[in-house]
Amino acid sequence: MNCPKVDKLSQYADNLLTQQEHSQILTHINTCDTCTSIVQLFKEEQQFLKENLQSPTLPDDFASLVLEQLEPYKQKDVRRKKQIWNRIFLLAASIVLALGLTATLSPSFAQFIEGMFSTKQVDEGLKMASDEGLSERVNLEVSDQDLTFKVEDIIVDSSRVALSLQVINEDGVAERPNINESNKGNRISVNGYNGEYTYSMGYRMDRGLDYNSFQVFISDEPGLEKVTINFHLVELNGKQGNWELEIPVELTDSSDKTKNVILNNATQNINGVAINLKEIQYAPTSNTLLYETSYESSEQVKVEGNFQSLNEQFGFDVTEFATFGTSIKYHIENEEKKVILKFSPFTQEEPMDDKLIISSARGKGKFGHAAWKEAFVPDKFDSKLTFVLDGVYKVVPTDFSIKFNPNKIKEKPVSFKYMENQVTIKKAELQSAANTSDPTFFEIEMEVNKESGAAELGIWVLRDDTGKSFRIDNETTTKGKESNMRSIYFKTNGLDEIPEEMSLHLLTATSYNELEEKWRVPLYE
């Protein structure tokens, strides 16, 4: 059934419907999150009014006392009119009191009025910015097929642009937005303009209960003046139609809300890795740490030489398939030394911190040299933060290889240990592709048990008994019940039949060096 009208949901919450109507709506809300939320909202308000409007009661002569203060003329015989005004005044007073108390004390009703950014559907940074009055209601919308696609609120600072998206049906009820990005007809684009040229930017869309959060993270492009977000949707919440909306966002006035702290001379060389902290940006919706990592000069020469040898041996550029080469693990403390953020580029080692909003890195030319950017949720009570380096990661070339007979793997799995990783090759066989027109592929399954401090195994190459090399084109990793156990599935094309002997060659691994004495850098002036 279609969603009931709001007044029916209100009557359902108040138990005012017939038994048949009550049963019909009960069946519906069991499968509809939106209507469930609306009913819950009505029930919470009903309970709130019950608890807060029953006491204290007003004195019987309250209205008369107030009206006497307002009466500018001598009283005449207007008893009937006075009785009417008494009733109107008491009704108005009740309504004002109810709305005032509800909006002030009831979180659900306040959220309903204030929009998405006042709710728990967004991170704390956006919620704090909304509480400080930085959310602007724009109410840009377009309608088709009895559905309205709406941008309700927007928050802008120097770190990101955030929109709240709504879908409202013909009954005026907000539905959970369902924007199918796999539909090729649905196009969403974000373009930045820096005064000279326009360039494409990325975005992130998070699904909420009755909203979607759409976020654009501001890049390091200098002089960015404007961001334009375009929605061209041909499918919305399962309906075919046409919804086009353009949202221009000016950024020139957002920089005055941001404080930049330049971290002069915050550099360190550890285990062949150079770390250079650049600055931290304190914006209303997020704090953003900017830093660079690279190989120390002598380490750079050594690594490049080893990679060149691997390139010649296997016939392709290994560094094209490697990670950024260098990275760090750190945490950030407040003035009381309470940890407010933990970061590691390897989520297997350190689960993703819910304070982290986004992490990005871009190459700076040489292999191993990367510029990093981590944005995390600010804390309104933390004015003095400290960066604490826990350890460093670096990609190192390896020359490890293992031979095996693919035809005997199932009966006799091959096991080995390397860099504190206990590895077992469990499967090696040709597989047929789902699409019969595609060629078959060769799949290898390895089970990896990582010990404490184990390196991350990187790029693998497969060789047959003639010495021909096959790059691993597809890799999938699944974690087991134990946090240190995982299965890795390799897929490669080009093998038509299985040889008697093959070899796996590990070309790279990422080692980690934990610091006994932590490097601490104040992130304030």
Main sheet specs:
7 strands, antiparallel
Uncertain residue segments:
73-112
Structural class: alpha+beta
| Helix segment tally | 8
Strand content: 35-45%
Q: Could you please describe the fold and organization of this structure?
A:
The structure is a single chain. By secondary structure, this protein is an alpha+beta fold. Helices cover 21% and strands 42% of the residues. It has helices at 6-13, 19-29, 33-53, 62-70, 79-105, 107-114, 124-131, 297-314; strands at 136-144, 147-156, 160-168, 174-175, 187-193, 198-201, 204-207, 212-217, 226-236, 239-250, 259-262, 267-270, 273-282, 287-295, 326-333, 339-343, 356-363, 370-376, 386-404, 414-418, 421-431, 441-450, 456-457, 460-463, 469-471, 474-479, 485-492, 502-522. Strands 15, 16, 19, 23, 24, 25 and 28 form a 7-stranded antiparallel beta sheet that branches. Strands 1, 2, 3, 4, 7 and 8 form a 6-stranded antiparallel beta sheet that branches. Strands 11, 12, 13, 14, 17 and 18 form a 6-stranded antiparallel beta sheet that branches. Strand 15 and strand 16 form a beta hairpin. The longest helix has 27 residues, at 79-105. The protein is globular. Mean pLDDT is 82; it is low at 73-112.
